[in-house]
Amino acid sequence: xxxxxxxxxxxxxxxxxxxxxxxxxxxxxxxxxxxxxxxxxxxxxxxxxxxxxxxxxxxxxxxxxxxxxxxxxxxxxxxxxxxxxxxxxxxxxxxxxxxxxxxxxxxxxxxxxxxxxxxxxxxxxxxxxxxxxxxxxxxxxxxxxxxxxxxxxxxxxxxxxxxxxxxxxxxxxxxxxxxxxxxxxxxxxxxxxxxxxxxxxxxxxxxxxxxxxxxxxxxxxxxxxxxxxxxxxxxxxxxxxxxxxxxxxxxxxxxxxxxxxxxxxxxxxxxxxxxxxxxxxxxxxxxxxxxxxxxxxxxxxxxxxxxxxxxxxxxxxxxxxxxxxxxxxxxxxxxxxxxxxxxxxxxxxxxxxxxxxxxxxxxxxxxxxxxxxxxxxxxxxxxxxxxxxxxxxxxxxxxxxxxxxxxxxxxxxxxxxxxxxxxxxxxxxxxxxxxxxxxxxxxxxxxxxxxxxxxxxxx
Length: 459
Fold this sequence. Notes:
Layout: H1 2-6, H2 15-47, H3 51-58, H4 60-67, H5 72-75, H6 81-98, H7 105-133, H8 138-145, H9 147-180, H10 183-188, H11 195-208, H12 218-246, H13 255-267, H14 270-273, H15 275-304, H16 309-335, H17 340-356, H18 364-381, H19 384-392, H20 399-428, H21 431-458
Helix pairs in contact: 2-3, 2-7, 2-8, 2-9, 2-15, 3-7, 3-20, 4-7, 4-20, 6-7, 6-9, 9-16, 15-16, 15-18, 15-19, 15-20, 15-21, 16-18, 17-18, 17-21, 19-20
């Protein structure tokens, strides 16, 4: 009975607050990323820099959020998840508020890197809480929270563009900093499930005939989880020491023992333990590459085609609205048990076709149609990394490590997407070339997913 209950979602009503928290965090992340596309030309002019450098700097918040998320595993030993998440909210907002006074592009980059690290301190606790509250329906719940990124993508850029007109460059960053300050609220919501644990205790005690115990408070639960985590770490260390001693009296200094220790560490690596996850990892990186670069360069691409800034920003809103319908369709397809891999393959191929057609026309109506198609499909396969992680990881004990590895893959994709796109534009001075590159990468992603599907079906 106990094992069966662990595979079910928590019955604690607080799980809806956790969903709201992740929704708000993604609203902030998506809104800021898209708003930086509005600020991109101003930042280039203000610091007399090139697109490659500025794209790298403005992409740092999302990049650092995912790159530094694995570091937060070690911080769990010294603080609760809620404390970590709230500190992250402050680190996210304060550098954004002060960013407009940065004297150089390098100082601006350091500020935005701190912003990304602060978002990581909030992001990882929320993801861990999501997996605790939604053990069974994680994919559906995660896809639901990604609506926040969609709403942020079409709402916050409009606010930023209007703020630039009314308050200027400094005012625009202050508004973004105020929006980022809501990350503290996201962190305050984090706590482990309680009523779900009470149900498990009821089931266990009914089966064994023991008396019920009272449900611990949130603070007691956090402390108990931390103590359990440390106890498991000590036990694992003791087992490793015993294994080392069993190899011989001089096992600690033997080269053969060192080699065995290295091989043992290598085998515990998530990409070795989960080969199917390793197989689908390239599609996760390429998806993040295309998403990050498209978000940053959509508005500059429209301006380069002769569209004024207000109408160019409105293309982001069109893409965001279209993406909302895309996410709704994805949830409906999940409800009717459609295959995730097939959905993502179709979305990637459709989006790639829209990128290949970019050279056809530069009229505003045509660009609006292409932006709607791209928003519709990109915000569908934006769900790809965590969905494919859940499908490809066979051992559920590896899920926390897979979440950390996913964050690292996110960081690689976002960083390479912004920097490489900036380099290509600096060399070619053509946004159409950029969009063709995105189409090629999505075709490669489709092939990778099809290979995964064939092997997955055989196994």
